[in-house]
Write a structure and sequence with these properties.
This protein is mainly α. It is built from 21 helices and 2 strands. Strand 1 and strand 2 form a beta hairpin.
Length: 415
């Protein structure tokens, strides 16, 4: 049971596995969604009911099979994945339980931050075997999650809710991305971090950073650094911006558009909008979803730029041809777009409503597993030592610019 040689590239493998999951759900094979929400010891105890434990087991077996199949079709040794995945899954369940706490959830703390922290603690306190670390393929897990993320980007819902959110998203994403890119260049932040920071600030936070890292084949340690910055700044923004809106006496529509366009994580946007009112929550969600629509297009543009920027050869810049661009192009972007088109236009509304909860749960699980893996393979001391304060300052300044520009555009469109 060493390996099964098919040697499909990892980029195509994640698209295949993502669509296997999607088609199984559409055809009626729906994985039960476990519950992790709890408020006190009594509700926490209820999560360990036989029914909920069975739902967790079903997800584990399903994800386990997908990981093994992924190793088989990419021609990788299977046994390291067979032995390591249960450990990664068990640690991820702890992260899901922590993020399910009502108080922590209200603070906008998402599962990925707990996954990352748990992974960092285990990975830095214990010396992990080499075979175990080699089997931590975080990028593979992330890309499957990104393909599934496309199922939640429903174009018709956004257009029905209002085109103003899409207009705002286009203006904000383009202006903030360019400003962040220019600022990082001025501060001499390295190229990979520059691309991840620019996308995270301007588009949709964690998902954009993940997609950009995949598009440029970025360092997972740098990705964890950017994700940490996103999640750290999202909390004070989520709590503080509604109070600033009240002081400025902003209408609910303007406040919602401001929150949805500025705050980088969907969970924090929902929590912040809820602090203001129903109308603010509705508008903020529409604007955030509109930004999510742009994620696939942004990843496409970034991957083409990253490939075509060229590398110095013999004193001049060599520009790759279309064949090289296609070879380096991240195929998960095609999976993301295809999944979005499938759920937006090909499937009927009843089918979408029936399967979206299960697919979203599996998508969240892949992201959580990926960040547990990133934490396990990251040395925390190296993370701090190899990253200067410049990226953090660039992120903060760009985020401040984002807040001001989004407020101006929100007032113009929704005021």
């Amino acid at each position: 049971m060493s390996s099964f040689k098919l040697n499909i590239s990892e980029d195509w493998a994640v698209v295949i596995l993502g669509f296997i999951i999607i088609f199984l759900a559409v055809w009626g094979f729906v994985i039960p969604v476990p519950h992790y929400e709890w408020t006190d010891s009594a509700t926490l105890q209820s999560l360990f009911s036989q029914a909920n434990e069975l739902h967790v087991l079903y997800q584990f077996v399903f994800a386990y099979i997908m990981v093994i199949v992924g190793a088989m079709i990419t021609g990788k040794p299977i046994m390291p994945y067979v032995r390591s995945f249960p450990v990664v899954f068990g640690l991820t369940i702890i992260a899901l339980l922590l993020s399910g706490n009502a108080r922590l959830s209200d603070l906008g703390l998402e599962t990925v931050i707990f996954s990352l922290i748990i992974g960092l603690i285990i990975g830095n306190l214990f010396k992990l075997p080499v075979w175990f670390k080699n089997a931590l393929n975080a990028e593979f897990l992330v890309k499957i999650g990104l393909v599934l993320l496309g199922t939640g980007v429903i174009f018709s819902n956004i257009l029905e809710a209002g085109s103003l959110g899409l207009v705002q998203s286009l203006i904000v994403v383009l202006s903030v991305w360019y400003f962040a890119f220019w600022l990082c260049k001025r501060l001499k932040v390295d190229e990979e971090l520059t691309m991840m920071i620019s996308s995270a600030v301007s588009i949709c936070g964690v998902s954009a950073a993940i997609a950009t890292s995949g598009a440029i084949k970025g360092d997972s340690k740098k990705l964890s650094y950017v994700v940490s910055m996103v999640l750290i700044t999202a909390i004070p923004m989520m709590i503080g911006m509604p109070y600033i809106a009240r002081l400025l006496e902003l209408p609910e529509e303007v406040t919602g558009a401001w929150l949805g366009g500025s705050i980088d994580t969907t969970g924090a946007v929902v929590a912040s909008g809820s602090l203001v009112g129903e109308r603010a929550l509705e508008i903020s969600t529409i604007v955030k979803f509109s930004q999510n629509v742009l994620l696939g297009l942004a990843a496409l543009a970034i991957s083409v730029y990253w490939t075509y920027r060229g590398t110095p050869v013999g004193g001049h810049i060599e520009k790759p041809g279309l064949g090289i661009i296609w070879e380096r192009f991240p195929k998960f972007v095609l999976g993301f777009i295809a999944a979005s088109l499938l759920f937006s236009f090909a499937l009927d509304a009843e089918t979408v409503d029936r399967v979206k909860g299960s697919v979203k749960s599996i998508q969240g699980l892949w992201f959580a597993l990926a960040f547990t893996s990133i934490g396990l393979e990251t040395n925390f001391r190296d993370l701090l030592r190899h990253n200067s304060a410049k990226p953090f300052w660039a992120f903060l300044i760009a985020q401040g610019f984002n807040v001001l520009v989004t407020l101006a555009v929100a007032w113009w469109l929704f005021g």
